[in-house]
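We modelled the chain as a single entity of 406 amino acids. Its sequence is:
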Amino acid sequence: MSTSRVNAGERRLLLVLGLPTFAYALATTVATTYLPVLAQEFTRSSTVIGLLIAVEGIMALLLAVPAGALSDRGRSRLPFVEWASPVLVVALALMGLAASLPFALVVVVVFFGAYFVAYEPYRALYPDMVDDRITGRAQSTQALWRGLGTIIAIATGGALLTLGDAVPFVAAAAVTTLTIATFLMLLPRERAEHEPNKSTSLRDDVARLWSTVRRRGDLRAFMVANGLWELSLGATKTFIIIYLTRGLGVSTGLAGVAVAATAVFIAAATPISGKLADRFGPVPVMRVSLLIYGLGMLVPFLVANKVVVGAITPLVGFGGGVVMTLPYALLIPLMPDDEHGLTTGLYSVSRGIGTALGPLLAGVAIGVLGGVFTKTGGYQAMWGVCAAAILLSIPVLGRLREQRER
């Protein structure tokens, strides 16, 4: 498979298209990484904390498909971004005031509800506006934005948290607002328009989608594999800071810097994986990366040593970068031409299942194995959940390749 050069106009489009990814990644990373730290003030149960963050997956299951399908029915998907983003940033700013479980639950539900209403139509702009020949590099550019948002959120969140509980959340809300406003000003709106889907109702859209899933083994294999990848990522995001601070005894600020260092390797992996995917195909690149990633996460599961954990960071970071970059590139060739938003909703349904199960299963594992991993208070158990999900996805990915070849 040969690669094609990206011209200046395409490069500018990819940069502008990636801005909301940066904004939403920064916002969701602050929410899912630092709200669990605040939650320790009103609950000590790792399972309850996992359930709180699992709201992300539940909202994905409820809203992703309807939001994507509704965006197919209009000429533009941008109104979803324009109306939902302000709700998202207000909920994010209020998150820093959470001092009880009911209040935290309400703001998390509102936050992730707005997130999926905005994000599904936004992400469907990629198959609408980007040429198929540069799909891999489009996804690698988007993943770079996502990695940058993640790095900034984690690296600064710990330090900002020492200034006050609300500070990282308010700061993230301000940056998100500015970034989304810039995107809406710079995106060529005429190119963002598409031919509306002629379906008669949302119910018909959803019924047609599930009928397609039942017929097509490749879509089912993708959903299972993507759900496992997001399970791993969701578990990691929820408990990584607590693992470092309570498990390994690292300060909150230093923990943020350590995770940001890992995110640098994630960012380095994204352009490399995108180019490799355009040249060799995303499935072979994913298979090798998943094996490295899964085996790498077994190390902190088995060994509670700061030096060993630090040494394995590049492998885990690089593998995580590939997993964050290529899944959507796997799905785009499977999408019907007039259902980009609807099928993007399917992508987020699989994400939702993973992001709901990941924090929950990790929280349960931490509680159950606390007596086994006494040195880390049980928190290293999360790595076992993450590694199992990644390694189990490899044979599922093989089935996806078989179905596509048929």
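As a brief sanity check on the tokenised model: The longest helix spans residues 217-247. The chain has one domain: 10-187+202-405.
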